[in-house]
Every structure is written in C-alpha cells, then in structure tokens.
Design brief:
Elements lengths: L1 E4 L5 H15 L6 H10 L2 H8 L4 E7 L2 E9 L3 E3 L1
Antiparallel strand pairs: 1-2, 2-3, 3-4
Helix pairs in contact: 1-3
C-alpha cells in the first residue's frame, strides 16, 4: 500500500470511496438532507476545490486503485 497526496485525476475515485464508505456505515441513520449534504461534501468537484486550498488530502493506493482517503483541514483536524 502506498500513501500519497491526492492529485486532480484522483478526485472521482476518492469521491466514490467516500460515498461507498458513507453508504455502508452511516447513511441509513441520517435524513435525506443529511445524505444530500454529505454527497455535496464528498463530490469530486468539492475535493478538487479543497485540495487547492490549505487542506492536506492523502490517499491510500493499492495496486493502482485508491482504497482510502484522509483529509486534514487547515492542518489541524481530520475532515470529511
């Protein structure tokens, strides 16, 4: 497994990983509004915008496939 910084071409895969994890873990405990809000945050264009700001986004890659992601917002706390 390789841990590296996100690059622009990763945003679609990162969004898919986040949405799959969200759907399996907590989506069924939230309202439609909560699900919609998370989907907006986890959208590929939202990742692209945040990666251009001061957030550090790292991906876990195995055999060329992105399998995980972590985001540090403003270098202070885990986000997403």
């Amino acid at each position: 497994m390789k841990i590296r910084a996100i690059v622009e071409r990763d945003t679609e895969a990162v969004s898919a990983v986040c949405m799959a994890s969200f759907s399996k873990s907590v989506a069924d405990t939230l309202s439609e509004e909560g699900i919609s809000t998370f989907a907006k945050i986890a959208a590929s264009d939202a990742f692209l915008k945040r990666m251009k700001e001061d957030n550090l986004i790292l991906v876990a890659e195995c055999n060329g496939e992105i399998e995980g992601v972590i985001e540090l917002k403003e270098g202070c706390h885990v986000f997403c």
